[in-house]
Each structure stands twice: as structure tokens, then as C-alpha cells.
């Protein structure tokens, strides 16, 4: 296992490399093969959309890359970590240091204020409290919600909650951002706004960004689009050329 | 319908451990109620049965020994069913390594007498005319002094030594509880021996068939009050009367009555407090369950199931719960009844009642279980079923977080790491649930505390009754001596001072009633007795005719402080002024100046005993004192204190039982409630784990929350326990002596520390479940919603 983060700085070393990843679930007597043979390389600073119909295994794939789920077989290398066969403690460290998550349902903690929700990211990454707070304020500003810092999730709209969740994922400045249907629960206008925000942040912070969606519109905002079908990925024509 | 029932039963099965906990709580509540009430009834039944079978005397008249031939015949009085005379003679039983035991010899004529206060032979055989040196001894005397049929004992009466053989062990309704020396302030079992023998035994040495006690049984329905006066007027002038004791005031039965009443008054208080906790817990847990089923019920309604049918379906698991609870409860009841009654009986030397349950209490208990379960489940059900299916299903994650208002704003500004803030705020989140949890835990712990405080208070108060007294021992004489004899006792090695006292029984006529009192005459300036004065004052130097009276009796008679009352000691009357009320272990305790007591007794300067102040080793001094004659008994203060504590120690069993029951309930409750609240937030904990929070931090968050909850409950338990103890003490005070609240830190710590330590353990199950939860599955569940 190579935990040395220095080795990933070279351009040739991709941030994510999946080789022959397979994921099966056992349901009773039957084995369901959700991911059959997934191969994927993502370079640093690249943004990728993974599309597919509902139930095609997009979330499963994303969870495997994020250290939430384990591949049944195949090689999973993310940010210099080989994720096969890690202990739960190591998985936790990996998630803490390397990945920022954005979910469809925001998953904010209802008893924490907006600022505190953002602080969860840097604080669990081990930042001292004052620094965690400074970071949180900075990213709250970046998503345009500095004035709502002391509001609680229930006092915010869906779009605002998702922006808080984005700030939470970014605040610890992880090398990789994973988003699972980030606009899935938002209306069209709000979704567009959130996408614009993501575009901007991607540029400003040179994020490596993998988004999973069944919404074709989202792929307009990424460098590359992939299609998950029958348990493997196929390349779609690039929508936009990287800058 | 069948599908519906299947669903509901499965839903119940999913939380079977929690429901099992509810069943246990229900069983404990029901069992304690039915068991304790049965125990109380059984004890009283046992007493009544013994009184009836033993033909207990309604009245006993004591007088100076007289030839049995010269006792006036009471047969001419129409209210009297039968009467019987006997000799009750004090003596001493010689013991190997201990001071002699004050022992009463009671004569029974096995042929013509023994009908009243009939002696039941439990072991060996009764006395018979042809074996004059055979005696039957009291059951408790046999137990405390390890005597059995066939043993030999030596009894000294009026300076004569009798070598006797124990032929049997008996139980008399007169001494249902361990005979105790009534002259000791807190009578303790084993402090008095009772021996039953033939009249010839003493007659042989004295020459005449002497008697000094007349037992009288009235015809059914006749009033003791009325006939007492008739009997006295018939006997006065013929006999030198000493004491009239209606059976209700006979020392043994009075003590039994008091003690049983204290039991009867205290235990229901314990049951009320305990069952209230059980009720809260049951109600809360079932309520939680139904609320948790909210979405499922909403779905069922959406599928078109009839609301009534859904409601009925949910009653099925609850009915099963009730049945299990009642069946287990019966076993608990039987155990509780047995434990409480035998524990109590042992503590006062009372015969064990039979092992049984009173059907009436079982029925009330089962009814109570039904009502509580029904109420607990129908309240939330009715509320839920009134919602539209959509309202029921739409239960947002933030539900219950609204209206936190100011509290949340304050909490928002509190500093601290995020995980700690999260833990604290979760408490404020479902305020009503947190409050209920805190209250229930505080109640459970508080009740336990109050039991221990009550115990400490009882012992503390009893010890305080004599602790302020300067004397080291009480010396009682067989025959009165002049008070100048104090010099003689003071001359004994180890004695510093001897203060004379005299005892007499008399009747006090108050505006409300006429009561028997036990008067102690003491030199008012000596300060040798310092009872706790509840109102007015104690005796002071210069007092001539002051009377300090036990409060309960004063209230019964209706006398006030400052009032002049007439005391009647068998025809000799004298006035006294009530100057104060005292708190005594027995009603009727009273003190007057020594000279006043001597006046009414017309006994010149005689006294019946001395309070002694020692300067040397008490045991050694007692030994030297016993070398003098005429000494009935010398009781050391340290012995009395030890006895009080020992008696309390025996009651500890009962208290401990109560404590264990309430601690178990509290823990079951914490277990259920904590698992419920924590598992309800499973998604959030999973989210924290996904975001990279370490397992240690997750555990800290949960433990912090539980401990904080526990800490508030513990703080609250202190006043709750204190107040409950007040309540328990006041119940005891009503029935017995005035119990003042004495609490030791230990009474609190004994409950609170284990309680606080066990609380996080109650959360371990939930913690384990959260840490083992696969992250992806949880996220997926969330997304399904
Ligand atoms: N823990 C699991 N056990 C069994 N089957 C699962 C489990 N997790 C996911 N699946 C199945 O895997 C398939 C892919 O799920 P998912 O990755 O959520 O798809 P998507 O995100 O593309 O909609 C689904 O058919 C789902 O039923
Ligand atoms: Mg998905």
C-alpha cells in the first residue's frame, strides 16, 4: 500500500484508478452483479460525470471510490490509497483526509447551525477548532451563505441546504469531491444555480470532481461523461474540452 | 386483516427486547403491588388468627401478689365471659457468659386454667402436674438463646434459685412478637425471656398459692372501656392494684400493632412511588413504539385499511405483552409477598404467615395492568389514526426540532467541539422525550435514595432519642429502695453517679379520651433524660408538678401545653401541668419530677431504679454491680444503640428489596429509552462516520449525551429522593415515633454512583449497532425515504 501523498503530484499519476472492479450483492441464494468490470482513470483536476439509469450501480461505484463500500474484486486506488482490504479505521482516515461528499438529500445535522454543519468537515479532518471555524466561514462565504451562518437547516431552503452541504465537503479541502445526484431533490432553477456554483468552485479550487447522476443536463458541466450500463463504463463523447 | 396482523406482530418482534423490558416492568409493578398488599393482609390475618385461636385476653389486671383463694369472683358481672388468675413473676435466667436475662415466669394450671392466652406447643410437650420442674419456654427465647426441649435452665426469683427443665417450646398470643423488655426505651427482641410453669413451682417455696394477674375475656361485642371501670370498682379495696392493661395496650400487642401499622403505612407509600415509576416507564416506552410506527401506520392507512382495524391490530401485541406481564407478575408477586412478609416477620420475631396471594389484590393488579397498557397504547394510536395518511407518512428528519427557540439560540452560541455540541443539542431536540427520560430516571433513582434515607432516619432518630442522655446504663430493681441507696451504687468501682428514678403506670383523663401512660419520675434538675422535645419544654430544676408527655398520646387525649390534668394511679389522684410534648418510641411515654411520682405512689423516698453514669469499663462495672442483690437488669446504653442499629439492619432487607426493584426498573428504562433515541438518529451517526468522524468520537458523542442526561437526572434525583424520604418519614411518624430526616452522603452515593456508571452501559447495545451499521446500506435507506 502506498500512502505517500507526494507520489500523486506527478501529472502521470491519476487520482483515481479502478481496474476490473466488480461488486456483487448476495440476495438470498442469488448473486446480483451490480458492477461487472469497471475500469476508470481520473486525473487530478479533472471533472467527470457518470450517468446511467436508476439502479445501474452509479451510487455503488461512487461509494466504492469514497471508501464507503468495498469492491468484491478488482483494484481500487484513490488518492494514493489502495482501498482493497482496509480496516474500518483506515477507511475512516481515508474518508476524513481524502474525500468530500455531497449527497442528494444534503444530510445536514438538524441540530447544528449552518456554520457548525460546515465545521463538521474540517473538524473531523483534525483541524483545530479556530482553524476549522475560519475555514467554515471562508467556504460559507464562497457558497454565498455567510449571512445564514447561524440558521438551522430547517430554516433554509433546499438549495441553501445543498450549498451548505457543498461548503461542508469543500471546507476541509480534500483532493477528491464525490457528488451523488447533487441536484436530485432540487427544482430546475435551483439546480441550475447549484451547478453554476459547482462550476465556479471547480475552477477556483482546481477540484477533482466526480458526479453521479441520471440527469443528462449535469454532464454539460463536466470535462468528461461516462455511461454506466450492464455493470461497466463506456466513454461518451466529451461535451466540453478541458481548459 | 391477516396480513395486517402479521405486519404488526412482526413489527413487535423487531423490537422484542424492548417489549420484553416493558413486560418485565409491568410484571414488577404488578408483582410488587399484589405481593406487598398480600403480605400486609397475610400478616394481619395471621395475627387475628392467633388471637382468635389463642383466646387472647381482653383485659389484664395486675396487682400485688395475693392468695388465689381471695380473688373476688367476677362471674357476677354480666359482660364477662371468663376470667382466670395467674402469677407473673419476674426473675433472672442465668446465662453462661452474659449478664442474667430478665425473665418472666408465668404460671399456668394445666387442668383448670390456660384457657385465656392459650399456649400453643410448637415443639416438645406442655407442662403437666406430675412434673413440677418442667417448664415451657417462649419460642423466641428458645431461638435467641439457643434452647431446646431437654435443656436445663437456672432461674433466680426472689433470691431463690430454681433448676428447671425445658419440656417444650410454645407460642402465646400474648407474645406474638419477640418478647422485649418494655422498660428499655427501644425494646429489642430477645431482651425478655418468658417461661411457663406450674403454680406449685412457686407455691412450694412461698407456702400459699399466690397470684398477681387476672386475665379477663369479655362476651362478644362488649366494650373494654365500659367494663374496665366496672371491674376496677369491684376489685378496688380488695386488691392492691398495680396496672390495668386492655389487650390493645398490652405491651406486646401494642408494639405489634404499631409495627404492623408502620409496615402497613410505609409499604403502600413504597408501592405508590414504585408503581408510579413503573407506570411512567411503561407508558413512555409503548408511546415511543407507536410513534416510531408512524410511517408504517400512515402507509397502512394509505393502502386503505380501516383505522379501527389498524388500531385493533396494534392492540394484539400489547395484549400479549399484558398476558406475559401478568403471568410473570404473579411469580414476582409471590416472591415479593414471601420476601417482604418473612423478612418483616423475622425482624420482629413474628411467626411467618402462610405463602399465598390475596385474590382481590391480584384482580386489582391485573386490572391496573390492563388499564395502563391500554392507555399507553391508545393515546398515541388515536392521535396517529386521526392524521391523514399523508401527514402520517410525511415525517421529516427534522421532526421535533422545531420550536427550540431561545434554548437553541443559546446552545448555538455555546463553545466546544462540534461532536460535543451535537450531543448536547440532541437533548434539547426532543425536549419532551428528554424531559420524560430525565424525570423517570430521577424518579427511579430518587425512590431508591429515599429508601436508604428512610432507613438512616429511622435508626438515626431512634439513636438520637437517647444519645443526648448523659447516662451510661439503666439499673432496674426487683424491689424499690430508698433514694439514698444511690451512694451505695456510686461506691461501686466504675460508677461515677447514680440518679434515682421511679416508674408507674397511670391513666390520664383528657378532654377527648382516657389513656394509659407509663410515667417515669426523675429528678428534674438532673437532666438525666433528654428526650426530643417537639413542643413546649422538658423538665427543669424547680419543677413540682410538671408533666412532659409523648405527643401522639397527647393528641389522642386532646390535652394542650399549659393545661392542668388529673392523673389517676389506681384510685390515687394527683394534678400535673403539661409543659411539653416529646417524641417517643411508644405512645404513653411521660416524665414527671421524681417527688411528684413518689407522692402519688405514697412511696416516701423510694425509687425503682437508677440511671448510672460510668467512669470505668461498662462490662466490668456491670459485673461488679450485679454482685449486689435485688437487681433485675442493667442495660447499657451502647447495647441499646447496638440493638437499634441491629433492628434497623434487619429492616435493611426490605429496603434493599425495594431498592433493587426500582434500580432494575430504572435500568430497563434507560436501556429502552436510550436505545430508542439513539437508534432514531442512526442516519445522522452514519453520516458523521461517512464524513470521517472516528469511531471514538462517535462513541464519545453518544456517551456524552447519555452522561449529560444522567447527570441532570442524578442532580434531580437528589431533591426527589429527599422529598420522597420526607413523605416516607412522615408516614412512619404518623404510625410511630416522630422520625426526623437524617440523611448520610452514603445514602445518595450508594444509588447515584452505580446509577451513573451503569447508564453508559445501557447505551452499549445501541452504540454497537451504530458502529456495525454498513455505511452504504444506511445511505441507501435514507435515499429510499
Ligand atoms: N446492500 C445491497 N444489497 C443488495 N442489493 C443492493 C445493495 N445495494 C445496492 N443493491 C442493488 O444494486 C443495484 C444498484 O444500486 P445503486 O448503486 O444504488 O444504483 P443507482 O445509484 O445507479 O440508482 C440496485 O439494483 C440495488 O438494488
Ligand atoms: Mg443512486
Question: What can you see in these coordinates?
Answer:
The complex is a heterodimer of chains A (243) and B (785). By secondary structure, chain A is of the alpha/beta class. Chain A has a six-stranded mixed sheet. Chain A has helices at residues 58-65, 88-98, 114-124, 129-142, 158-171, 188-205, and strands at residues 16-27, 30-42, 47-51, 73-78, 81-82, 99-102, 176-180, 208-213, 224-229, 232-235. In chain A, strand 9 (224-229) and strand 10 (232-235) form a beta hairpin. Chain A is built from six helices and ten strands; from the N terminus they run E-E-E-H-E-E-H-E-H-H-H-E-H-E-E-E. Chain A has one domain: Rossmann fold, CATH 3.40.50.300. In chain A, 31% of the residues lie in helices and 26% in strands. By secondary structure, chain B is of the alpha+beta class. Chain B folds into four domains: 1-56 and 250-400, no CATH class; 59-247, no CATH class; 403-468 and 640-785, no CATH class; 495-614, Beta Barrel (Barwin-like endoglucanases). Helix content of chain B is 54%, strand content 20%. Chain B has a six-stranded mixed beta barrel. In chain B, 47% of the residues are buried. Mean pLDDT of chain B is 82; it is low at 396-403. At the A-B interface, helix 1, helix 2 and helix 3 of A face helix 12, helix 19 and helix 22 of B. Bound molecules: adenosine-5'-diphosphate and magnesium ion. Magnesium ion binds next to helix 1 of chain A. The site of magnesium ion has 2 residues of chain A, from helix 1.
Amino acid at each position: 500500500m502506498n500512502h505517500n501523498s507526494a507520489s500523486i503530484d506527478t501529472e502521470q499519476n491519476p487520482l483515481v484508478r479502478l481496474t476490473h472492479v466488480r461488486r456483487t450483492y448476495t440476495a438470498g441464494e442469488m448473486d446480483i452483479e451490480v458492477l461487472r468490470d469497471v475500469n476508470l482513470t481520473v486525473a487530478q483536476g479533472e471533472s467527470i460525470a457518470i450517468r446511467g439509469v436508476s439502479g445501474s450501480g452509479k451510487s455503488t461505484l461512487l461509494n466504492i471510490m469514497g471508501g464507503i463500500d468495498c469492491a468484491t474484486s478488482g483494484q481500487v486506488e484513490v488518492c494514493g490509497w489502495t482501498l482493497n482490504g482496509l480496516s474500518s479505521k483506515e477507511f475512516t482516515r481515508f474518508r476524513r483526509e481524502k474525500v468530500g461528499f455531497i449527497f442528494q438529500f444534503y444530510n445536514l445535522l438538524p441540530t447544528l447551525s449552518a456554520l457548525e454543519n460546515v465545521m463538521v468537515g474540517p473538524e473531523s479532518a483534525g483541524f483545530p477548532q479556530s482553524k476549522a471555524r475560519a475555514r467554515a466561514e471562508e467556504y460559507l462565504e464562497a457558497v454565498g451563505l455567510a449571512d445564514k451562518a447561524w440558521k438551522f437547516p430547517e430554516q433554509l431552503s433546499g438549495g441553501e441546504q445543498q450549498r451548505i452541504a457543498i461548503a461542508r465537503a469543500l471546507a476541509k479541502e480534500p483532493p477528491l469531491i464525490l457528488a451523488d445526484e447533487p441536484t436530485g431533490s432540487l427544482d430546475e432553477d435551483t439546480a441550475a444555480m447549484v451547478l453554476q456554483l459547482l462550476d465556479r468552485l471547480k475552477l477556483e479550487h482546481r477540484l477533482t470532481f466526480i458526479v453521479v447522476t441520471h440527469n443528462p443536463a449535469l454532464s454539460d458541466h463536466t470535462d468528461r461523461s461516462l455511461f454506466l450500463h450492464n455493470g461497466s463504463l463506456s466513454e461518451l463523447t466529451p461535451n466540453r474540452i478541458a481548459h | 386483516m391477516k396480513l395486517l396482523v402479521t405486519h404488526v406482530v412482526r413489527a413487535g418482534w423487531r423490537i422484542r427486547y424492548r417489549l420484553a423490558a416493558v413486560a418485565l416492568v409491568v410484571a414488577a409493578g404488578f408483582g410488587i403491588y399484589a405481593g406487598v398488599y398480600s403480605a400486609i393482609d397475610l400478616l394481619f390475618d395471621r395475627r387475628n388468627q392467633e388471637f382468635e385461636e389463642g383466646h387472647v385476653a381482653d383485659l389484664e389486671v395486675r396487682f400485688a401478689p395475693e392468695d388465689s383463694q381471695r380473688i373476688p369472683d367476677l362471674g357476677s358481672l354480666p359482660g364477662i365471659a371468663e376470667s382466670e388468675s395467674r402469677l407473673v413473676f419476674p426473675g433472672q435466667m442465668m446465662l453462661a457468659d452474659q449478664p442474667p436475662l430478665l425473665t418472666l415466669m408465668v404460671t399456668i394450671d394445666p387442668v383448670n386454667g390456660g384457657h385465656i392466652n392459650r399456649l400453643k406447643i410448637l415443639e416438645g410437650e406442655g407442662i403437666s402436674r406430675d412434673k413440677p420442674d418442667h417448664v415451657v419456654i417462649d419460642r423466641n427465647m428458645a431461638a435467641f438463646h439457643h434452647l431446646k426441649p431437654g435443656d436445663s435452665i437456672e432461674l433466680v426469683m426472689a433470691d431463690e434459685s430454681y433448676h428447671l427443665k425445658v419440656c417444650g417450646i410454645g407460642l402465646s398470643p400474648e407474645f406474638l412478637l419477640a418478647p422485649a423488655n418494655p422498660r428499655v426505651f427501644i425494646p429489642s427482641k430477645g431482651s425478655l425471656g418468658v417461661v411457663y410453669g406450674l403454680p406449685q413451682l412457686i407455691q412450694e417455696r412461698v407456702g400459699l398459692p399466690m397470684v398477681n394477674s387476672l386475665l379477663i375475656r369479655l362476651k362478644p361485642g362488649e366494650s373494654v372501656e365500659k367494663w374496665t371501670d366496672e371491674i376496677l370498682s369491684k376489685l378496688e379495696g380488695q386488691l392492691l392494684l398495680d396496672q390495668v392493661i386492655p389487650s390493645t395496650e398490652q405491651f406486646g400487642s401494642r408494639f405489634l400493632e404499631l409495627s404492623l401499622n408502620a409496615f402497613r403505612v410505609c409499604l403502600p407509600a413504597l408501592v405508590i412511588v414504585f408503581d408510579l415509576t413503573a407506570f411512567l416507564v411503561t407508558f413512555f416506552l409503548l408511546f415511543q413504539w407507536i410513534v416510531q410506527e408512524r410511517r408504517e401506520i400512515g402507509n397502512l392507512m394509505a393502502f386503505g385499511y380501516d383505522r379501527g382495524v389498524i388500531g385493533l391490530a396494534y392492540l394484539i401485541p400489547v395484549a400479549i405483552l399484558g398476558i406475559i406481564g401478568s403471568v410473570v407478575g404473579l411469580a414476582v408477586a409471590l416472591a415479593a409477598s414471601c420476601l417482604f412478609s418473612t423478612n418483616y416477620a423475622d425482624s420482629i420475631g413474628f411467626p411467618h404467615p402462610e405463602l399465598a396471594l390475596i385474590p382481590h389484590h391480584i384482580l386489582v393488579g391485573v386490572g391496573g395492568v390492563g388499564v395502563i397498557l391500554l392507555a399507553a397504547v391508545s393515546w398515541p394510536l388515536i392521535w396517529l389514526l386521526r392524521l391523514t395518511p399523508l401527514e402520517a407518512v410525511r415525517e421529516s428528519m427534522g421532526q421535533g426540532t422545531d420550536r427550540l427557540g431561545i434554548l437553541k439560540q443559546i446552545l448555538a452560541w455555546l463553545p466546544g467541539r462540534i461532536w460535543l455540541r451535537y450531543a448536547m443539542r440532541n437533548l434539547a431536540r426532543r425536549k419532551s422525550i428528554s424531559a420524560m427520560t430525565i424525570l423517570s430516571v430521577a424518579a427511579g433513582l430518587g425512590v431508591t435514595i429515599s429508601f436508604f434515607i428512610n432507613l438512616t432516619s429511622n435508626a438515626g432518630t431512634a439513636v438520637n432519642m437517647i444519645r443526648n442522655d448523659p447516662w451510661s446504663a439503666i439499673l432496674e430493681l426487683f424491689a424499690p429502695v430508698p433514694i439514698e441507696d444511690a451512694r451505695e451504687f456510686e461506691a461501686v468501682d466504675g460508677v461515677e453517679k447514680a440518679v434515682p428514678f421511679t416508674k408507674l403506670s397511670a391513666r390520664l383523663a383528657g378532654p377527648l379520651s382516657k389513656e394509659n401512660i407509663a410515667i417515669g419520675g426523675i429528678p428534674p434538675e438532673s437532666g438525666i433524660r433528654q428526650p426530643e422535645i417537639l413542643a413546649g419544654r422538658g423538665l427543669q430544676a424547680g419543677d413540682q408538678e410538671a408533666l412532659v408527655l409523648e405527643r401522639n398520646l397527647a393528641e389522642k387525649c386532646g390535652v394542650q401545653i399549659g393545661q392542668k390534668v388529673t392523673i389517676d394511679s389506681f384510685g390515687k389522684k394527683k394534678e400535673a401541668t403539661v409543659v411539653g410534648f416529646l417524641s417517643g418510641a411508644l405512645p404513653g411515654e411521660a416524665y414527671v419530677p421524681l417527688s411528684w411520682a413518689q407522692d402519688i405512689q405514697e412511696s416516701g423516698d423510694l425509687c425503682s431504679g437508677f440511671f448510672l453514669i460510668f467512669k470505668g469499663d461498662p462490662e466490668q462495672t456491670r459485673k461488679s454491680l450485679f454482685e449486689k442483690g435485688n437487681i433485675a437488669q442493667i442495660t447499657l446504653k451502647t447495647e441499646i444503640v447496638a440493638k437499634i442499629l441491629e433492628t434497623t439492619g434487619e429492616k435493611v432487607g426490605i429496603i434493599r428489596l425495594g431498592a433493587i426493584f426500582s434500580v432494575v426498573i430504572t435500568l430497563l428504562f434507560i436501556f429502552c429509552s436510550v436505545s430508542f433515541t439513539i437508534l432514531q438518529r442512526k442516519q445522522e451517526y452514519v453520516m458523521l462516520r461517512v464524513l470521517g468522524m472516528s469511531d471514538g468520537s462517535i462513541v464519545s458523542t453518544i456517551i456524552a449525551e447519555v452522561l449529560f442526561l444522567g447527570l441532570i437526572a442524578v442532580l434531580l434525583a437528589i431533591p426527589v429522593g429527599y422529598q420522597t424520604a420526607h413523605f416516607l418519614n412522615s408516614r412512619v411518624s404518623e404510625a410511630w415515633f416522630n422520625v426526623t430526616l437524617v440523611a448520610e452522603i452514603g445514602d445518595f452515593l450508594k444509588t447515584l454512583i452505580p446509577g451513573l456508571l451503569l447508564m453508559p452501559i445501557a447505551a452499549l447495545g445501541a452504540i454497537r449497532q451504530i458502529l456495525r451499521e454498513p455505511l452504504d446500506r444506511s445511505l441507501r435507506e435514507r435515499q429510499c425515504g
